[in-house]
Structures are given as C-alpha cells and as structure tokens.
Design a protein that fits this description.
The complex is a heterotrimer. Chain A is mostly helical. Chain A has helices at residues 28-51, 54-63, 67-83, 85-90, 92-119, 137-140, 150-178, 193-215, 217-220, 226-237, 244-260, 268-280, 292-299, 305-309, 323-332, 335-344, 350-354, 361-373, 420-432, 450-454, 458-475, 485-493, 505-514, 536-539, 543-549, 579-593, 606-613, 615-623, 636-641; strands at residues 15-17, 141-143, 408-411, 437-439, 479-482, 501-504, 526-529, 554-555, 600-603, 632-635. A 4-stranded parallel beta sheet of chain A has the order 4-3-5-6. Classes of the chains: A mainly alpha, B mainly alpha, C alpha/beta.
C-alpha cells in the first residue's frame, strides 16, 4: 500500500484528506435525498406553526425557558426518541430493537460529526461539504499509519461498536417481519408502499455502511468490526480493492430513504421531537387536524403496538379500526374511512396508554366525531326549568336525626339506575359509616355529559354540565361521591367545581375505612379486581380499590391489569360496534380476569357490572371446564356492604 | 263538485303513501337494526331526558314510518345520549347510534 | 327378554310416556334428578285456562305408573352407543342396556336476578311466577315478600324475547300464566289493583282468550302495553315502576306493593349435560333439535334417542302430554322395526290371537 502523501515524521497529522477536493460524485444521491427531506420538513414546520394560534405559539416559546419544562423536554427527547424506555418497560426485546436503530444511528451521526470536528475541522463548513463529509468520513480521509493516537483508536472503536449495535437492531427488525411474536407483538402494521421503500432502504443502509467502511478500513481506519472484514476482502480480491460501487450503493440507499421519508412512517423521527416540545408546553389541539393535532398525527411511528392493545382486535377483522391505521388515513385525508374508524372506537384509551410516543388517538377520534356531530340540532331548553333542590326528607343525618346541610352528595348517574344493587350497597355502606349524605338523583337526574362529549357533541355537553353544576354548587355539599367512573371523570376534569372535593366511591370508602368510620370483616374469598377503563387509564385510580379489597378478601391478580386491563366491551364510547363484536370483547376480558381462578370478579363501574353479568359470563363459565364453579360478578360497594 | 272542506284542513289520518322510502333506506344502511323495533317502549321508559320532556326512540321510529319526520326529530332533540335505552332494548338495537343517524339523515341542513 | 327403555326425567312428559310404554309391555326405567317425581308440575297450584288443580293432574299422571321402575335422586353418569342399544351407567351404580332412550329433561326457569333492573333479590317485594305458585300452595304467610299488597304488577317477558338476557325466543306460556295469576291474586286480595305490563298478549290456546276477557271484565285487571324497563325502591319499600304506555304514547310510572316477574323457560342445565354426553344436536338457544318440526317432532337426530316435552322448547302442559303419547308411538314403531323378534306384550297378544 503506497501512501499518497509523504510528510516529515514530526509534522505528520493523524488524519489527512484523501480526496483534496473533499467531494466525490457518489454523494449526489444522498445530498439530493436529504435536501428534499429537509426542505419538506421546513415547509411543513412553517405551515404547522402557522396553524397554531399565536397565543399558543408564545406559550411554546416561553416554555423553553421554564427550567422544569426544559428539563422534561431533554429527558423526554432522550428517553422517548432515543432510548425508547416506554417500550423497554413493556417488551424489552422490542425496546432493544427500536433503541438500537434510533440511539445507535444517532450516535453514529454525532460521533461522525465529532470526528470531523476533531480531525478535519475545516470540513464542517457547508461550503466544504459539511452536509455529506461527516456521513462519508471514512471515504474521504486517510489515516496516517503509525500516527494514530489513543483518541483516534477510541473513535474507531466507538464507531464500530455503534455500527454493530445498529446492525443487531436491524437484524431483529428483519426477523420481526417473519416472526413478530418472538419480540412480543402478535400483530404488526401492514406497511404502505412508501413505508416499504423506506423500510427496505433502511435495512440496507447499515449493512452497506459496514461493507463500504470495511472496504476502506485499511485507508481510513477501523476497529474490531471493519478491520477483520477488510482483511477478508483482501483475501478474496487481492491487493486492490475497487470500493466505489459500494459507496455508491450506500449513498443511493441513504438518498432513497430520505426521499421516501416524508411519505412514510419514518418522518416521526423528526416530527416526534416537535410533538414532545408542544406536548410538554401543555398545548392542546384546537383543531382536529391542523396545528398541534398535525404534529401529533405525524409523530406516530406506525410501530403497531396499538394493534395488540386494542380490545377489538380479539377479532382479526377489526384490525383495520386500530389507531395506527386511523392516523394513516388522517394523513391521506380519506374521509370515509376516517369517520368509519372514528365512530367504532370504544375510547378505552389503551392505545394511548401503550403508545411509546404518547399519541392520544382517542382524542383525535373525538375531535373527528365533533366535526360531524357537534352541528346536529338539539334543544336542551328544558334544562332551564330547574330540577328543585333535593327535598328535606332526602337529607339523612343518621346521628342526630335533624335535617341539615349534607356533608356528602351522592350522584348515582344514569347507568347506576339500571344496577340497583350498587345503589342499595352504597346506601348501606353510608348508613353503616354514619355519613351525612343526600342522594341527589334518587328520582333520576340529568346526564353528567360525558357520553355527549365522547360522541363529539361538545356544545350539548356544555349545557348539561352547566345545569348540573348549578345544582351541585347550590346544594351546599362539600364532597361529591360518584359510583360511576364515567361521571367521576367528567366531574373531576370538566366541571370545575370550586370548593367541592370530587371522589369516586372507591376512594371515599377507602377514606372511611382509614378514618375508622367503617369496620370491615375479612374472609378468604378469592377476589379479582377489574380496572374500569374510565377509572384506571382515564383517571389514574388503580391502588385505592385494591387496598380496600385486600382487607376483605384474598386479592388475586388478573393476567393483565392496571393500565393494561382489557375493556369490558360495554363502553358507551363506541357508536357503531355491534352486540356480537362486543360479546367477543367481553369474553376476552373475562378470560383475562379468571386466569388465576378467582371466585368473584369485582368491578367499580355499573356498565362493567352489567356487561360482565350478561350472557358472556355463561359462555366463559362453560368453556372453562365441566367442574368449574361459576364465577360471580359483584360490585365494589356490594362486596364492602357484605363485610361491614 | 260539492266541497266538504277536506282540502282546507289536513287530514288527521296517517297517510302511508307519503312515506319517504329512500331516506329510510339510507337510515337503514347506517343502522340496519332500526327495522327490528317491536315498539315495546323500554327506551322511552328509561329515558333520562324523558323525565322532563317527551323523548322516545320507539315513537320516533313510528313517526318516521308514518311519514312525519319532523315529529320524529322533535321527539329526539332533547336526547342526552346517556345510553340507557341501548342498555335495555330487547331487540339489541343500537339506539344511541340510531338517534345520531336520524339527526344526520333527516335533520334540516 | 323385553326391550329396555330408559326415560330421563320424571316430569309430566316422562311420567306420561313411562305409563304408556309400560302398558304396551316394555320394560321401562325412569330416572329423576331430584327426590320427587312430577318436575315443575309438583310445585304449581292451579293450571290455566280452567284452574284445575296441579296436584290433581299430577296424581292422574302418577296413577298409571305400576310396573315402571323409578329411580329418584339419580342422574346419568355415562352413556355409550353400542351396536343397537345404549349402555348407560347411572349415578346409583346401576347399568342399563337401553334399546331406546327418551330424553324428557324439561326446562329451567330463567334466573330473574339476571335482569338486575327489576330488582329481584335486591328489593323487598319482587317475586317470580314460580315464587307466586309456591306461595299459593304454601299459604298466605309463607313468603315475607308478599305482604297484603294493595297494588300488584305483573311483568311479562322476563328473560324472553330479550337479547340482553341471551334469549331471543318467546317462552309461550308466560302470558297465559300471568293472566291466570293476575286473576288469582285478585281472588286472594279483592281490594287490590292489578296491572299486567305486556309487549304482546299471546293467548293462543283454547279458552285462553276467555281467560283474558274474564281478567278484564270480572277482575278489573288493567293491561298496559309497554315493557317495564326500570324499577326503583321507595324509602318505605314500595316499588316505583317505570314503563311506557305505548298505546297512549306516553311514559308512565306507578307505585306498587308487589311485582311479579314472569320468568321465561330456558333449557334445563342438567338436560344440557346429558345432551353433551350423548352429543345430541342442539339449537342455538340450547334446546334440543328435533328431526323434523312437523312430522318427526319426537325424534332427535340420533338413532334410538327420542324427545318429548319442554326439552325441545317452551310448551304448555297439554302439548307436553300429547308429545309424550306421540313419543310412545314413535318408540314402539322404532323398536318393532329394530328388534322384530323381541317379545313385548303387544307381540305376545298378537301371537295369542
């Protein structure tokens, strides 16, 4: 090997430009591809920001200077974009795969720029090839043999290490296309055409990089990965290695990837960053498609974790309603499919909970529903003829027997009236704890408004909210206790009840037990607790019911619980799901709950109670074996009232 | 011809000839179970809004069949979409979606 | 050697078929799951439409049972098809080589607590049709839920014609039962006001329409066309019932002291278990399927297995008894064809002549 330059030993630099011009034709595909993508990104970014209200833009700008938010931004960028910690937590192998490609490639780019900065700093300038030089560093430089410093070796090692890291990820990604269940995913996203182009070029990029860099490893340096491969090439091809084709192939693949990127799922690599900044600044979508919502839509990486999450996908025919495809159709503006999917969703929020990027697809669906349903005519003028305040004989003060302003208002809600055992149990528990309460809607009342919001009729919901709000504020109660999680969520989030504490009855009963007002006896009945979607994922209440239940029986876990609990299937969120599909969802949820052979399923939601007590329970009982004793379904208050 | 004044006063008799088949078929395409209603009245019995003002899915379907779509919309405009009717319907009709569909198809735009 | 016939179920169908087959000379073995013969009939008071005594009818069915080997508290443990017969092992250890099997397992009543919005088992004054019949039999103080009611309501179609209860079909007899019980409650409490909440009044049988007329005219029973959808409890324990009067087109509410739920007929769970052992074809709702609804209503899809009574679907008592007799004829024909050389009574008689 003859060196191109011979310099006096003392002044020999470690790294020299092998190509004096610092340019070679093969970089053209890459440059064209990435320029196209960058222009697309910039234009899109401007258009997106233009659609965000000015007030929100200012808020975003200010958020960069608030230390707490700035720190959260940095932490989220590292944890979500690079390390994918959210995926690691649930499916480690999948997390490794995603982080290998994301973090590995990120480090390769960063280290590449660092190498240029340290060894040939003049090529950082854009006029001197700053766009492509760091990417193709190992083509353009020549390492002066015998003058490589420890720092230099360190960089060789790091680059090879991260290349290997990425290659393991790419290997897993290829394997995932054939046997995804090994990585923990039962269903994977069906890629579109642009997705496929970007995907296949992405797969090729890193093996080609390995090839290319190993072809020039004897000229530009390498470490444990590239050097042995380089020796292999020399052994096969002899002394002169013609490496141009490989570098061309590498550049073409890169160019193809970046050119396809704006039309594929991989745009999320960059738009995710924007979405995180917007989200941490607290900005909410003001329009269902533009502005913040658009950032959210493009932040979706099509990873497909929502496919396994969605309870409807117990039937393969419902895969097409999943969030990943909803987002895809939103990008393509396919209105019919968008409305179809938007109306079907159960709003159980599991896809949102499991999304590694935190895309709130149910909220996007609600916004879509609102564009159609919010303008439908309605007439709530009858709400102005106010429901009279609770009558005196409803106010029960067990201790003194005197009528006075009640401490607690109990609002049963529409659904609870169809499950009277909840009402009876709650009243029994209140009486046992000597609670001074008024049963606000004993004769029926006005709906809390959440079903209207879920259906997208936000203006109509505002009217029922204001009517109920007035009634509650006028009553003089200090605490509002709900037995229905649907009511609880909206009373907590939207009602803005100043000075009134809003509690779900599981939380209130826990408080009564802790205050000693309620004494519970225990027995060894095996109980399993079902986390209602609205209470668990909707409001974050997971532990309180469990703490109380473990005092009255033996609590066994379900196969999946907490924020991975499976929707009962009875949700009001879905507008179009039919009874047969719902029954299948109920069955899969029940099978999940009876995994550890409980005697009783305990729920904290009247809708779950109704759904689980229906015909699906018989099907599951029969399927679970001849001698299986029938599992009972009980409400939380019912269980407690049997143990006071 | 002798004029008994029938032309001046609209007949109180239901005239099924005026039934808008096309619109109803469009409704049935959105919600096929609308044809299954047996007019048992469970929906109107549990209705939350029915406590205040007359709201009835059963009656609305009846009025659509009897060529009075305006009366049908009138009966449904106070619906709070609470879902109790869907929970009790013995024929398994998705009444909530039906109410939204009726508003979409027959609602004046 | 006579042919053995195993009859599974000691209700009206089983009893009538047993006595019929016994008279024809066969060797009849009847097994009954509970400790008493008679099935549901044993717990009823008076039968519609004419008010005859259920006890008396049962006595009539039991009177002809001489010679039939009855085993109560006995169930089928296992059953295998051999070449022409069935090898049946019973829970009392006895093995029967049955040349024909008649499945007369009857029905179970729908569990009314599943219709939670009616409050059965939750409120203090809600009973079912079965509870009411038991009360008629046992006497006025036997059920604390029935406490000198002044306002009584009957809810038709509880667990029938209801997707939410998992049963689309009509249970046939509950309308006539409701009207009968309404009249009987009026007889027991002459000052009471009785309401019947129905969706359709299915008074199809002989004298049923007269029963309906009499209920309206003689007993002032008020019939309201509208399904009860929700029941709540007042502080004093009385029930607030919500329905819609669909004829008037208005929602209605009424306070009642007693609510009677007409629970529908569902396939018997014990019968289903036997059906699974035999691998009997069943319809979607769990009742057994017959070979042909018009011409072969007592034959199942399996050779040598016959059906009679409510095991194939809701039935009235006269229909059940008629089916049992039809099953006797079918079994006799079948056995004569399959076992032409076996000497039962009939063949002996023929030979004598």
């Amino acid at each position: 090997m003859t060196p191109l330059y011979i310099l006096p030993l003392q002044t020999a630099p470690e790294v020299i430009d092998r190509i004096p011009s610092g340019y070679s034709n093969f970089v053209i595909p890459f440059v064209v591809g990435i320029s196209f993508m960058l222009i697309w990104l910039t234009v899109g970014l401007f258009r997106l920001m233009a659609k965000i209200p000015a007030r929100d833009r200012r808020r975003l700008w200010k958020s960069f200077f608030i230390p707490k938010i700035a720190l959260k931004n940095i932490r989220d960028l590292f944890c979500d974009c690079l390390f994918h910690t959210k995926i690691w937590k649930r499916k480690p192998l999948l997390g490794y795969m995603h982080s290998a490609i994301a973090f590995g490639w990120f480090m390769l780019i960063v280290l590449g720029h660092l190498e240029v900065a340290l060894f040939v700093p003049k090529h950082l300038a854009w006029t001197d090839g700053g766009l492509f030089y760091p990417i193709f560093y190992r083509f353009f430089v020549w390492i002066n043999p015998g003058h490589v410093s420890l720092r230099g070796w360190f960089f060789f090692f790091l680059m090879d290490f991260f290349l290997l890291y990425v290659l393991t990820g790419v290997g897993m990604a290829i394997f995932k296309r054939f046997r995804s269940i090994v990585l923990g995913m039962r269903h994977t996203t069906k890629p579109s055409l642009a997705d496929r182009i970007a995907l296949y070029s992405l797969w090729l990029i890193f093996p080609l990089r390995l090839l290319a860099e190993s072809f020039t490893a004897d000229l530009s340096g390498g470490s444990f990965l590239t050097v042995p491969v380089n020796m292999l090439w020399h052994w096969i091809f002899g002394n002169n290695l013609y490496f141009m084709p490989v570098w061309w192939a590498y550049s073409i693949c890169l160019g193809l990837f970046f050119a396809a990127m704006p039309f594929s799922r991989y745009m999320h690599i960059l738009t995710e960053v924007l979405w995180i900044l917007l989200r941490n600044a607290g900005l909410q979508p003001s329009h269902p498609r533009k502005g913040v919502a658009e950032a959210e839509i493009y932040a979706c990486s099509s990873c497909g974790l929502c496919l396994d999450a969605c309870p409807m996908n117990v039937q393969k025919k419902n895969l097409k309603y999943s969030s990943v495809y909803f987002i895809r159709f939103l990008r393509r503006h396919n209105e019919k499919k968008i409305n179809d999917i938007a109306d079907k969703c159960l709003m159980c929020d599991k896809c949102h909970a499991l999304c590694p990027v935190g895309v709130d697809a149910p909220a996007l669906r609600r916004a879509q529903r609102a564009t159609v349903n919010d303008s439908l005519c309605y007439d709530y003028s009858y709400l102005q003829n106010r429901v009279p305040a609770p009558e005196a004989n409803d106010i029960v003060n067990v201790a003194t027997g005197i009528s006075d302003a009640p401490e607690v208002m109990y609002f049963a809600g529409c659904m609870t009236h169809l499950t009277p055992r909840i009402i009876k149990s709650v009243e029994k528990v209140f009486k046992a704890a000597s609670v001074n309460y008024v049963f606000a809607d004993r004769d029926g009342g006005i709906c809390c408004g959440r079903p209207l919001m879920l259906a997208g009729k936000t203006s109509a919901a505002r009217e029922t909210i204001s009517a109920n709000r007035k009634m509650i504020l006028d009553s003089g109660c200090r605490t509002l206790v709900l037995s229905c999680p649907i009511c609880y969520k909206i009373f907590k989030d939207e009602y803005n009840l100043k000075g009134i504490e809003v509690l779900h009855y599981t939380q209130y009963i826990k408080r009564l037990v802790e205050q000693g007002r309620l004494k519970l006896s225990s027995c060894d009945e095996r109980l399993v607790y079902h986390d209602p979607c609205e209470l668990g994922r909707g409001c974050g209440v997971y532990e309180e019911p469990r703490k109380v239940l473990s005092q009255v029986g033996t609590l066994v876990p379900a196969a999946k619980e907490g924020d991975e609990s499976i929707c009962c299937g009875g949700s009001l969120g879905s507008l179009t799901l039919d009874a047969r599909d719902r029954a299948k969802i109920t069955e899969s949820s029940l099978v999940n709950l009876v995994a550890n052979n409980p005697q009783t399923i305990v729920t904290a939601c009247p809708l779950c109670l109704m759904t689980f007590s229906g015909p699906a329970l018989d099907t599951v009982s029969h399927n679970s074996g001849e001698e299986a004793t029938d599992v009972k379904v009980k409400d939380f208050a019912e269980v407690i009232s049997q143990r006071v | 011809m002798v004029d008994f004044g029938f032309g001046l006063v609209p007949s109180s008799r239901i005239n099924l000839d005026l039934f808008d088949r096309e619109k109803f078929e469009a409704l049935a395409a959105l919600e096929p179970d609308v044809r299954k209603c047996m007019a048992c009245g469970s929906c109107a019995a549990v209705c939350t809004a029915g406590k205040f003002v007359r709201t009835s899915v059963r009656d609305a379907i009846e009025e659509l069949f009897n060529a009075h779509p305006d009366k049908a919309l009138d009966l449904l405009k106070s619906c709070q979409l609470c879902g109790k009717c869907t929970m009790v319907c013995p024929r398994g009709i998705n009444t909530r979606h039906l109410i939204l569909s009726i508003a979409k198809i027959y609602g004046t735009k | 050697m006579k042919n053995n016939i195993l009859i599974i179920g000691g209700g009206p169908a089983g009893l009538e078929a047993a006595s019929g087959l016994q008279r024809l000379g066969y060797n009849v073995i009847l097994i009954e799951r509970s400790s008493m013969l008679g099935g549901h009939l044993a717990s009823w008071d008076r039968l519609f439409p004419d008010g005859v005594s259920a006890r008396g009818t049962l006595k009539g069915l039991l009177a002809q049972m001489d010679g039939v080997k009855c085993f109560t508290d006995t169930e089928v443990r296992s059953i295998n098809r051999l070449e022409k017969s069935y090898n049946v092992i019973l829970s009392n250890g006895i093995t029967v080589l049955a040349d024909a099997v008649l499945v007369a397992s009857g029905f179970d009543l729908f569990k009314a607590e599943k219709k939670e919005e009616y409050g059965y088992g939750i409120y203090d004054h809600v009973v079912t049709n079965a509870d009411l019949e038991a009360w008629f039999n046992a006497g006025p103080d036997s059920d604390t839920r029935i406490d000198k009611p002044k306002r009584i309501g009957f809810v038709h179609c509880v667990g029938s014609r209801d997707e939410k209860s998992g049963c689309r079909s009509c249970s046939k007899v509950c309308c006539a039962t409701a009207v009968k019980q309404a009249c009987e409650m009026k007889q027991a409490f002459p000052d009471a006001q009785v309401y019947c909440f129905y969706m359709d009044l299915r008074m199809f049988g002989r004298h049923y329409e007269d029963l309906y007329l009499s209920a309206q005219k003689d007993y002032s029973v008020r019939f309201i066309r509208g399904r009860v959808a929700e029941v709540s409890e007042n502080v004093d324990g009385s029930l607030l019932v919500k329905a819609e009067d669909t004829v008037a087109g208005k929602p209605l509410k009424v306070t009642l002291d007693l609510l009677v739920l007409m629970a529908g007929m569902r396939p018997s769970a014990a019968g289903k278990r036997v059906g699974k052992l035999l691998e009997m074809p069943m319809e979607e709702d769990g009742f057994f399927a017959v070979r042909d609804g018009i011409l072969a209503g007592q034959r199942s899809g399996l050779p040598g297995v016959f059906l009679a009574g409510a095991a194939t679907g809701p039935k009235t008592l006269p229909e059940t008894v008629a089916e049992a007799r039809a099953a006797v004829v079918e079994i006799d024909r079948y056995l004569s064809d399959i076992f032409p050389n076996v000497k039962n009574y009939k063949t002996l008689v023929r030979e004598r002549w």
